């Protein structure tokens, strides 16, 4: 059965079709079949079930390309201390490790399901999430299994931090050996925290090359706490994205602008850690591809609100609304290699994410407003009215 969405005050397709006023959208078998002015709906729309959204704005569902959903435990005290003036260091990750290791698979399943539902209520329709809080073979494998049941793309982040009491190079023997073997059937990507307090350039390269040899795509946490080798390594390795990118040299920006590696901004994390906001304006001006993601995690960004992240990018990082929406939809899809490469398909022939062009996945974020500028104009206000994934309503 097809569904015709009518009553769309503005439809932001995030495609060459642009923004369409007084629009309609036809869904067939979970895929966008047609978009355009409501007065020009095709003949086949007459047989579709009609859903009137009451003069509301519609855009693609958010593509959250960087999250850490598989964890248990709480780091509120660490956050309070940071707000009182203590600086952020990568070592805080270890605090969550014991709680996650002891949680058990059933509880982790429940927690991730709850986090996905909460993000659906905020307009997110596509999710990446990482392992990285168990930091031993058993727990990383458990996290990979859990994540694979709930999200679209799973990343192995055994190289998140060296567990307390272990030595980095010896720990990496586990990461690139038995740990990688244990997770590889449940994940699509490998990632490494290339940062002071975590892993240096040579160690990070070793992790990424092992992942590539196992058939995984590459991602990098880099340049969060200062300028460093993360961006250079990501581009060298053909990474789909390098995430955080708070501190970039001119050379880093030009490397990203000349590559297919997406620079992922994590504004909620920047605020929580009181680091410099990532230079999104400079990256876009140089021609780099930019994504926006939530970085949902227990230590530095305990939020799945992409609405908040988009608002922050507009109000504080000087992106236009169109740029911020594109970064949080198509940009995230590019960071996951789920973007439109023609005919609404992604590079693997699946319905593309992050756009509402014909052939793409019918993932809709319907706002309780007639114009998407209200995301920034009314910061912090509840604005998600309905969320649809593959043509089915999952919230609202």
UniProtKB/TrEMBL annotation:
4-imidazolone-5-propanoate binds at residues 75, 133, 160, 224, 300. This is Imidazolonepropionase. HAMAP family: HutI. Signal peptide: none annotated. NCBIfam families: hutI. The keyword Glycosyltransferase does not apply. SUPFAM superfamilies: Composite domain of metallo-dependent hydrolases, Metallo-dependent hydrolases. Its EC number is 3.5.2.7. Keywords: Cytoplasm, Histidine metabolism, Hydrolase, Iron, Metal-binding, Zinc. Pathway: Amino-acid degradation; L-histidine degradation into L-glutamate; N-formimidoyl-L-glutamate from L-histidine: step 3/3. Fe(3+) binds at residues 66, 68, 221, 295. It comes from Corynebacterium gottingense. It is found in: Cytoplasm. It is an enzyme of class 3 (hydrolase). Gene3D superfamilies: Metal-dependent hydrolases (3.20.20.140), Urease, subunit C, domain 1 (2.30.40.10). N-formimidoyl-L-glutamate binds at residues 133, 297, 299. Zn(2+) binds at residues 66, 68, 221, 295. It comes from the Bacteria. Belongs to the metallo-dependent hydrolases superfamily. HutI family. The gene is hutI. GO terms for molecular function: imidazolonepropionase activity. InterPro entries: Amidohydro-rel, HutI, Metal-dep_hydrolase_composite, Metal_Hydrolase. Residues 58-372 form the Amidohydrolase-related domain. It catalyses: 4-imidazolone-5-propanoate + H2O = N-formimidoyl-L-glutamate. Its cofactor is Zn(2+); Fe(3+). The keyword Methyltransferase does not apply. Coiled coil: none annotated.
């Amino acid at each position: 059965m097809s569904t015709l969405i009518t009553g769309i005050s503005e439809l932001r397709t995030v495609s060459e079709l642009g923004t369409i006023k007084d629009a309609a959208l036809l869904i067939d078998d979970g895929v966008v079949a047609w978009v355009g002015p409501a007065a020009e709906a095709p003949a086949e729309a007459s047989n579709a079930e009609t859903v009137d959204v009451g003069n509301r704005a519609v855009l693609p569902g958010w593509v959250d390309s960087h999250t850490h959903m598989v964890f248990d435990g709480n780091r509120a005290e660490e956050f309070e201390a940071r707000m009182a003036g203590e600086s952020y260091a990568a070592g805080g990750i270890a605090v969550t490790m014991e709680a996650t290791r002891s949680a058990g698979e059933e509880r982790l399943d429940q927690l991730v399901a709850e986090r996905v539902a909460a993000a659906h209520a905020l307009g997110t329709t596509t999710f990446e999430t990482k392992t990285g809080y168990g930091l031993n073979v058993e727990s990383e494998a458990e996290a990979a299994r859990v994540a694979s049941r709930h999200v679209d793309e799973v990343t192995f982040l055994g190289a998140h931090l060296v567990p307390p009491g272990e030595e980095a190079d010896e720990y990496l023997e586990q990461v690139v050996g038995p740990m990688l073997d244990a997770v590889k059937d449940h994940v699509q990507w490998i990632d490494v925290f290339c940062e002071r307090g975590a892993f240096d350039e040579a160690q990070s390269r070793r992790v990424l090359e092992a992942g590539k040899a196992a058939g995984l795509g590459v991602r990098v946490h880099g340049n969060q706490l200062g300028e460093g080798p993360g961006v250079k390594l990501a581009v060298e390795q053909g990474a789909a994205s390098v995430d955080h990118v708070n501190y970039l040299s001119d050379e880093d920006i030009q490397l990203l602008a000349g590559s297919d590696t997406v620079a992922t901004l994590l504004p909620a994390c920047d605020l929580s850690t009181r680091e410099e906001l990532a230079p999104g304006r400079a990256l876009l001006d140089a021609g780099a591809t930019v994504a926006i993601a939530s970085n949902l995690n227990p230590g530095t960004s305990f939020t799945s609100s992409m609405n908040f992240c988009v608002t922050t990018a507009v109000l504080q990082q000087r992106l236009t609304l169109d740029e911020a929406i594109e970064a949080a939809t198509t940009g995230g899809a590019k960071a996951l290699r789920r973007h439109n490469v023609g005919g609404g398909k992604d590079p693997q022939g699946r319905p593309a994410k992050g756009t509402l062009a014909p052939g793409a996945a019918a993932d809709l974020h319907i706002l309780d407003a007639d114009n998407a500028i209200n995301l920034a104009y009314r910061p912090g206000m509840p604005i998600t009215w309905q969320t649809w994934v593959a043509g089915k309503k999952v919230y609202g």
